[in-house]
Automatic annotation (TrEMBL):
EC number: 2.1.2.1
Gene Ontology annotations for the cellular component aspect, listed alphabetically: cytosol
Gene coding for it: glyA
Oligomer and partners: Homodimer.
Cofactor(s) recorded in Swiss-Prot or TrEMBL: pyridoxal 5'-phosphate
Name assigned to this protein: Serine hydroxymethyltransferase
Domain Serine hydroxymethyltransferase-like, first and last residues per copy: 6-108, 141-413
Main location, first listed in the record: cytoplasm
Length: 452
């Protein structure tokens, strides 16, 4: 930090403060974690200075021999870790991984057959008219994904996102009574809509998914199954999700982030069955430019860590702790979407406290509990104010929290929310954003957190 401070002291100070904040609060954001020193240090090297567009052994720049080593190792560890025939470690983020996946599916299913039919090797060989026809065809495909309020991600066909614009999209939700995925309904929608891509995976669904069933649905309608395991990749790596719950053998293409439950650097990953490998390998130049070689190096280190037996124990503790957290809420009378969890996250419905998600998130933050507000199915408050708070166990499990600590976390959260009331606007009207936290609650919560 002294080196940084000698150039821009305010950045050094913000960095120091970030460490203090992350350590001094309860980090319950389901998509966050604490990467190991080995992972963090690997990101801060001169690999950042290197350009390496292309792929291993086939670069558009000279002197990429060390980047080749790094990328090949990251892919090898990922293949071994997840039992995947092919791995692509270049995507800079989860969204990039999904874009690479979408475009490789479109290349495989639309572009390559069209080029073959026209006897062309590449799109550059097409006449203007054939190119226009192909562009139209590429933009005329259908995607069926999980809706945002049911727990899906923006990239699963949400209209304001590029995925909802590059595809004709339809969304599946969850059962309004149980909050659970209704596979029969997904199958019905798939038969009606006939998507080219069926997306499974989630950001805020507190249950496991049967990917074998999703593959059956995809096969029945001729869709490609893409699973986005960004949130639960750590549970797949740690073999908590196996058989029908392991997406990798069932999906044609599986995408992930590397920084959530997988505990690596901030980045993305694509795994594919052999059939899609060559198309995914064209991620650059199809979607990406120069890879972040320093981050690929850190991915290789993180995947190597995840291949150790300790990681499987860690992954099991993530799931066990989520159950303890859920129990802690239920015994204190709180409401959970789907009534519980069997993965790494819990979705607390804060209506019973008379609050919006935004008010709950802000009150908890004041007390040192870092969460994020989240929509619940059919959310009456919309995506900005929301009605839920999403809580995940990966980060605090890394800090060594176990069942009794997570029960205390539930106790603290219920205590804070029970002492929070909805506020008003300056003009005295009811507000969905402002809140009043009773005197002394923030202080006593901070004191309990300091003891943990
Ligand atoms: N996919 C899912 C399911 C996610 O939850 C997220 C992130 O929240 C992403 C993709 C996007 O990841 P990133 O923020 O790295 O682009």
């Amino acid at each position: 930090l002294e080196v940084i401070a000698s150039v821009e002291p305010r950045i050094a100070e913000a960095t120091r403060q970030e460490l203090a904040d992350q350590r001094g609060s309860l980090k319950l954001i389901a998509s966050e974690n604490y990467a190991s020193p080995a992972v963090l240090l690997t990101m801060g090297t001169w690999f950042s200075d290197k350009y390496a567009e292309g792929t291993v052994g086939h670069r558009f720049y000279a002197a990429c021999q060390n980047v080749d080593t790094v990328e090949a190792l990251a892919a090898e560890h990922a293949r071994e870790l997840f039992g995947a025939p092919y791995a692509y470690a270049q995507p800079h983020s989860g969204i990039d991984a999904n874009l690479v996946a979408f475009w490789s599916i479109l290349a495989h299913r639309v572009e390559t057959p069209a080029l073959e039919k026209l006897g062309a090797k590449s799109v550059n060989d097409l006449t203007e008219q054939d190119w226009e026809t192909l562009r139209h065809e590429l933009g005329n495909q259908r995607l069926l994904g999980m809706s945002l309020d049911a727990g899906g991600h923006l990239t699963h066909g949400f209209r304001p996102n590029i995925s909802g614009k590059m595809f004709h999209q339809r969304q599946y939700g969850t059962d309004p009574e149980t909050g659970l995925l209704d596979y029969d309904r997904v199958a019905e929608l798939a038969r009606e809509f006939k998507p080219m891509v069926l997306v499974a995976g989630y950001s805020a669904y507190p249950r496991r998914v049967n990917f074998a069933k999703m593959r059956e649905i995809a096969d029945e309608v001729g869709a490609t199954l893409m699973v986005d395991m960004a949130h639960f990749a750590g549970l797949v790596a740690g073999k908590v999700f196996t058989g029908d719950e392991d997406p990798v053998p069932h999906a044609h293409v599986t995408t992930s982030t590397t920084h959530k439950s997988l505990r690596g650097p901030r980045g993305g990953l694509v795994l594919a069955q052999e059939e899609f490998a060559a198309d995914v390998d064209r991620g650059c130049p199809m979607v990406l430019g120069g890879p972040l070689s320093h981050v690929m190096a850190a991915k290789a280190v993180a995947f190597a860590e995840a291949r150790r037996p300790e990681f499987a124990e860690y992954a099991q503790r993530i799931a066990d702790n989520a159950k303890s957290l859920a129990e802690g809420f239920l015994t204190r009378g709180a409401t959970l979407v789907t009534g519980g969890t069997d993965n790494h996250l819990v979705l607390l419905d804060v209506r019973s406290f008379g609050l919006t998600g935004r008010q709950a998130e802000s009150a908890l933050l004041e007390a040192g509990v870092v969460t994020n507000r989240n929509s619940v199915p059919q959310d009456p408050n919309g995506a900005w104010y929301t009605t839920g708070v999403r809580l995940g166990t990966p980060a605090l499990t890394t800090r060594g929290f176990g069942s009794s600590e997570f029960d205390t976390v539930a106790e603290l959260i219920v205590d804070v929310l029970s002492h929070t009331t909805a506020g008003t606007t300056k003009a005295g009207a009811p507000s969905k954003a402002t809140f009043v936290l009773a005197d002394g609650v923030a202080e006593r919560t901070h004191a309990r957190i300091d003891e943990m």
